[in-house]
Amino acid sequence: MSNIVIIGAQWGDEGKGKVVDLLSSGISAIVRFQGGNNAGHTVIAGGKKYILKLIPSGILHEGKICLIGNGVVVDPSALCSEMDDVAGQGIAITPDRLKLSRKAHLIMPYHRLLDQAREQSKDADKIGTTGRGIGPCYEDKAARTGVRACDLEDPDLLRAKIAHSLKEKNTLLAGLYGGKALDVEDIMAQIAPAAARLTPYLADVSAELAKVEDRGGSIMFEGAQGAHLDIDHGTYPFVTSSNTVVGSAAAGSGISPSRLGRVIGLVKAYSTRVGAGPFPTELFDGVGEHLQRQGVEFGAVTGRRRRCGWLDMVVVRESIRLCGIGEIALTKLDVLSGLKEINICTAYMYQGKKLDFPPQMESGMGKVTPVYETLPGWSEDLENASSWEDLPETARSYVRRLEELAGISVSLISVGPDRDQTIMR
Ligand code: GDP
Ligand code: IMO
Ligand code: MG
Question: How far is the CA of 411 from the centre of ligand 2 (A)?
Fold first, then answer.
């Protein structure tokens, strides 16, 4: 079995899109298993930039099957727009290449509105969601009142489900948040074009994955977000609403956990976070500005500035444990060029004790003090480095120290957004 799981080991935006695209060439099928269009995965190929939100990042490789699993929440109109965008860039989108699980839950207009209304009504406790309706859609899934992709083939059931949901949602939207109540027929009319467009793409994703394996093909599981945005294991409540850890790849695509294969953890050479929530190594000085500017750290979905800070090995160490990460793909090492000294957070001080893993109390992460180790920086540009030997000794020492602290190897180093700005070790 040569299946691979790609998982973000920090707070998302580690460069999963680039690595999925890069490693797709030896793979038969790429499947998304959680999250929705809160994800923004950027791939630069042939001088063109593609931002994928719901469509797996393997789509740029001809002949690869791209699947959206049952664990993903899908906004039908957003998926159609993305299909148009990608097709407009010359990539064929056809039902034999793109498949949407009939069991995937659909984001309805009331989910988006509720997500936004809730955020607007909050003050200091805002989560800073992407406003795409992700949380409210997963809520309905858990409440067993959700609309699923298979309902697009059964308009009577779809209408009944929406009508049922609106009783409660309108009370919240109009009553509590002072917005407008929604009408079931308006929603049906809004969804109709997307429903007609998406119906040919509906599939039994679990069965499709089994077929790929029966033919001797291999599967890549493309994670969205990062392990520290996981609803259970992340910095709750400043998390997304799905399980982002590797275990989710099995349940969210309909495959046995024993079939997951190699787990590659994506680690950015520093840390970033979008939205609110504790971030122990966050920088508010010139170094933070350097990382933000050199790394072009703006959210791919919302355009928000990403908060930047030093690499936090406490966070990475926990992701390795939670996800069984066997190797690291290290991205954006080039962004550190030009810094005199580079810090790595190796542990936290919390209530007078040294911690190797994040504290368990909800308020804990906001109260830790990072313990830093300082390494020398380098001035050389890394963007043209194509082998380990091309890297300055100080950059190699940084990678070696990271490996020691992680207890696993770095098998891939990315030194720029392009496919070929990659060092395989
Ligand atoms: P994802 O959500 O994990 O797929 O990551 P994003 O695509 O949201 O953010 C990563 C950004 O960094 C994208 O704009 C990539 O094109 C870019 N990128 C990826 N790898 C590298 C790298 O090694 N160096 C630089 N400078 N940029 C990179
Ligand atoms: P990719 O896949 C970074 C963050 C949001 C917010 C929190 C909850 O590109 O790495 P949500 O809309 O999910 O309810 O927002 O999660 N968030 C991400 N941050 N990268 C992502 O995805 C993210 N998806 C959600 O900023 O803080
Ligand atoms: Mg992203």
Answer: 26
Distances (CA, A) of 52 to 18, 63, 291, 338, 349: 11, 18, 23, 31, 39
* Residue 259 CA to ligand 1 centre (angstroms): 28
> In this structure, which residue's CA is closest to atom 3 in ligand 2?
12
Q: How does residue 301 score in pLDDT terms, banded at 50, 70 and 90?
A: confident
CA dihedral of residues 172, 176, 179, 184 (deg, nearest 10): 20
For the chain, the structural domain boundaries read 4-102+203-263, 105-198, 267-424
- Angstrom distance (rounded) from CA 179 to CA 117: 8
Query: How close is the Cα of 239 to the center of ligand 2, in Å?
Result: 8
- Cα(331) to ligand 1 centroid in Å equals 7
Residue 99 has, within 13 A of its CA and on its CB side, a CA count of: 23
Ligand (nearest to CA of 382): 1
Q: Is 299 exposed, middle or buried (0-12, 13-18, 19+ CB in 10 A)?
A: middle
CA-nearest residue for atom 28, ligand 1, is: 417
Spell out which residues line ligand 2, taking CB within 6 angstroms.
8, 11-13, 38-41, 127-130, 132, 134-135, 224-226, 229, 240-241, 274-275, 300
- Confidence band (pLDDT; 50, 70, 90) for 300? confident
**Quick one: 267-424 is in which CATH superfamily?**
Adenylosuccinate Synthetase, subunit A, domain 3 (3.90.170.10)
- Buried b / exposed e over 265-291, threshold 16 CB at 10 Å, is bbbbbbbbbbbbbbbbbbbeeebbebb
* Nearest ligand to the C-alpha atom of residue 18: 1
CATH class of the domain whose range is 4-102+203-263: alpha beta
User: Catalytic annotation on 111?
Assistant: no
State yes or no: is 13 an active-site residue.
Answer: yes
- At residue 1 the predicted structure's pLDDT band, cuts being 50, 70 and 90, is low
pLDDT, tens digit (0-9, with 9 covering 90-100), for 379-424: 999 999 999 999 999 999 999 999 999 999 999 999 999 999 999 9
Reported as a single tens digit per residue, the pLDDT across 245-281 is: 999 999 999 999 999 999 999 999 999 999 999 999 9
Residue-by-residue DSSP string for 304-330: PBPEEE-EEHHHHHHHHHHHT--EEEE
| Domain 105-198 bears CATH identifier 1.20.1070.10 | no
